[in-house]
Design a protein that fits this description.
161 residues; Aminopeptidase; seven-stranded mixed β-sheet; alpha+beta; 5 helices
Length: 161
């Protein structure tokens, strides 16, 4: 895999991300019910804004985003990973793993997170597999029929591969 870095999104990144969302169901699953579909890419920074959250892109430096995700400070010193998405053109090539690893590192190093959480749809098997391999474990008490709430204590395990 090429060298990639986490950085703040620019206008071209939002154009790229918008192109990855083909329909209203995909939009709702990725961004939640408050983001309408269709939307215009220039609206995304406002539509995705959540208090105490930060948006990031995974980039090789030469092109628009390869992936996008947000960190949301929640529950004291826990940080939630949310709205994780990877360009369909590079799915299955390790960019989702790298995006999550760099977001987790940022949560720990910059925010001081003692735990990282996320929620994933039960039928999103590739994402579930990725999150488990990174050390996330299901929290049944906070899960629903539709989604699994997962928690990870940084440095507690999970493969780095």
């Amino acid at each position: 895999m090429m060298s990639v870095l986490l950085r703040r999104p620019i206008e071209a990144d939002y154009e790229a991300v918008a192109s990855w969302i083909p329909d209203s169901k995909s939009c709702a699953r990725w961004a939640g019910p408050r983001v309408p579909f269709p939307f215009f890419a220039p609206e995304l920074p406002t539509l995705l804004a959540v208090p105490d959250s930060e948006s990031y892109c995974l980039s090789d430096g030469d092109s628009p985003a390869l992936g996008f995700g947000q960190l949301w400070l929640r529950d004291g010193d826990a940080v939630r990973l949310m709205r994780i998405i990877v360009s369909p053109a590079v799915r299955g090539q390790g960019f989702g793993r790298e995006l999550c690893r760099q977001l987790i590192a940022r949560a720990v190093d910059v925010v001081g997170a003692s735990a990282v959480t996320l929620a994933v749809y039960r039928d999103n098997v590739p994402a579930l597999s990725l999150y488990r391999s990174l050390g996330f474990v299901p929290v049944d008490a906070r899960s629903t029929a539709e989604s699994i709430f997962m928690n990870m204590v940084p440095g507690s395990g999970g493969s780095s591969g």
